[in-house]
């Protein structure tokens, strides 16, 4: 089914693939790095909700869940605009005439729900100062790496991914946009002991969506009726999200996200990594990640029990 493309892209007919630039020891896309002072200086408001994830860890999923909870389970209200309009992506500074995420956020009335992929140490300080509520979603490294690889293939604004082998090497050494997966999940895990952060796991969300949605509502101080919970579970199921033009990024022109290369909503499962990883690659990732994860007390599931 065809969808109407976003008109804010105006005369823009192509975009360049990003290159990586280090900011504070973390690789970011050049547009974020070039506008770093603006991003770092962003003024959070006390009632802001910030959704933070490593890229492709269930970001759009948790965004849609939060919106449904906030809109009392009304899917028509959630269809008021594409997800990237409803919840501005702070780290994004696209070419003209597309407004930057920061500009969109600044023009929004409170209360705002905002999105970032920044690691905890690079979050604009105002979020900590204002004691904003933050929801973080972590996904196991293997599924996350595969999803991120295919996202690079279809998103024409991301750096060239190269082959899967090359991409995985960069992923494991943190030479990808938003840096090391390991540092990201561990940094936010540590931050939750000092700040109001709800730390969720993608695998838990797949296993029991109602349970995790209930946690979100509780964290946001929203009393969730059973009927609203059920509607939210149905509306945010993978097949529903994949078919929803307000969530599946099909409103973006194909020169930005080419869904013929790989759909934005691709597999949405736990354990899909087994189709992409060799045994040696899986063991290599375990070897790199295990010591730091063990030290932090973080555990991930790479498959769900049938």
UniProtKB/TrEMBL annotation:
Q: Quick one: where is this thing mainly located?
A: cytoplasm
Which Pfam family is one of those matched by this entry? Sulfotransfer_1
List GO molecular-function terms, semicolon-separated: sulfotransferase activity
The EC number on file is 2.8.2.-
- Domain (Sulfotransferase) spans 46-297
* Compartment(s) of residence: Cytoplasm
Question: Any idea which UniProt keywords this protein has?
Answer: Cytoplasm, Transferase
Q: Name one GO cellular component term.
A: cytoplasm
Please give the family membership noted in the entry: Belongs to the sulfotransferase 1 family.
Please give the name of this protein.
Sulfotransferase
Q: Which organism is it from?
A: Phrynocephalus forsythii
């Amino acid at each position: 089914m065809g969808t109407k493309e976003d008109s804010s892209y105006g005369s823009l007919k192509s975009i360049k693939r990003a290159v990586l630039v280090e900011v504070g020891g973390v690789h970011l896309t050049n547009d974020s790095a070039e506008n770093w002072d603006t991003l770092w200086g962003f003024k959070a408001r006390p009632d802001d909700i910030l959704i933070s994830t490593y890229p492709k860890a269930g970001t759009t999923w948790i965004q849609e869940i939060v919106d449904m909870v906030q809109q009392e389970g009304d899917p028509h209200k959630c269809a008021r605009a594409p997800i990237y309009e409803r919840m501005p992506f702070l780290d994004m500074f696209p070419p003209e005439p597309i407004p930057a995420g920061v500009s969109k956020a600044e023009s929004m009335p409170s209360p705002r729900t905002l999105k970032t992929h920044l690691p905890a140490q690079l979050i604009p300080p105002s979020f900590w100062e204002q004691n904003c509520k933050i929801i973080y979603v972590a996904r196991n490294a293997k599924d996350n790496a595969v999803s991120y690889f295919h996202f690079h293939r279809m998103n024409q604004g991301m750096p060239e991914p190269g082959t899967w082998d090359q991409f995985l090497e960069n992923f494991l050494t943190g030479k990808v946009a938003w840096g090391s997966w390991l540092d990201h999940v561990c940094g936010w895990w540590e931050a939750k002991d000092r700040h109001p952060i709800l730390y969720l796991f993608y695998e838990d969300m797949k296993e029991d969506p109602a349970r995790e949605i209930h946690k979100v509502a509780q964290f946001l101080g929203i009393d969730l009726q059973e009927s609203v919970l059920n509607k939210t579970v149905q509306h945010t199921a993978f097949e529903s999200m994949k078919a929803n033009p307000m969530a599946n990024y099909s409103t973006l022109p194909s020169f930005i996200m080419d869904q013929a290369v790989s759909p934005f909503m691709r597999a949405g499962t736990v354990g899909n990594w087994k189709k992409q990883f060799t045994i040696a690659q899986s063991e290599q990732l375990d070897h790199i990640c295990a010591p730091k994860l063990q030290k932090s007390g973080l555990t991930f599931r790479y498959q769900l029990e049938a």
